[in-house]
Amino acid sequence: MPSFKEAVLAAEAANTVSMFVAQEQVRTLSDLKHALFQPSTTTHKQNASEISHSVSVVVLCASAVLSTADTVMSTVRELSKATNISPPNQESVVLVLCGGIGHSTQLMHDAVLRHPQYNALAEQVQGQPEGRILQAIGERFFDLQVNNNNNPESGDTQRRALTVLVEDASTNCALNAQYTRELLDAHGFKSPRSIVVAQDPTMCRRTVAAFEQVYADAIEGPPVFSSWPTFVPKVTAKEPSVGYINSLLSYFDFVDLDMGDSWKDGLWSMDRFMSLLVGEVPRMRDDENGYGPNGKGSIVHIDIPQDVENAWKTLSELLGHSGR
Q1: Among the four residues 70, 206, 218, 314, which has the most C-beta atoms within 10 Å?
Q2: CB neighbours (10 Å) of residue 261?
Q3: What is the pairing mode between strands 235-237 and 252-254?
Q4: What structural domains does the chain harbor?
């Protein structure tokens, strides 16, 4: 039977790993403005026919943790209302709703069905790709208007403070990045000044690294990338009720981050959360088994601090499994 002391050690280790994989660089509206509109260190040369002269991009990668979508859509909507699109400050934002049908899609459908508001969309989005689920949520609850213009050369996108596009074919982080770039290119946004990647906190750092890899060959220099997990999950160890200690997970609870009454209800199961954390670090490694340049090559090199490696080892050993 696991001890409370072991649970405390595991919780501390989990929080160390969680903070690292989330890579929180954007938290507030002010942070988002800075990430999107900060002066670029790269000079972008534009043709008169190109409309990407000052475009900044937010990519919302779909997740079964729907609070991420809530935060991103509400914040981007607020941002677009305050964005100056009049010359000479022609700032414009593109929001890409990203996700196809993959191994976690059913979890997202289940989350929609359980959600106190979004469950009204459950029948409408049944069987749809993740990006289309996000589209339905955005249109119904956040007044977002998706650009379904199939003729990007018409210039319609140029006049919008906020352009919303949907990428609905990607099934993993690498394809999120690849297909998003292809979508942006197709709409004339070939050289964005910045890209903020919003993703499930358990894989946000790796997703940003995938985007960095995809844009590594950008002729005019890569965009400035930022990570927006929307929150960093933390767990705490608590003494469970007598008779309920059947595993180390029995001790764990998510720390309340003051994100609303039903926020915890929309999180992962504790078992899945721990599995995601344990499985993420090996993916980020730059070795033959990882996704870095010396492995699959789908992400740029990530330096993993020794304290994170130590925490991952502690968590893996105490939980007795190796991740998803």
Answers
A1: 206
A2: 7
A3: antiparallel
A4: 4-20+242-319 (1.10.3620.10), 25-228 (3.40.50.620)
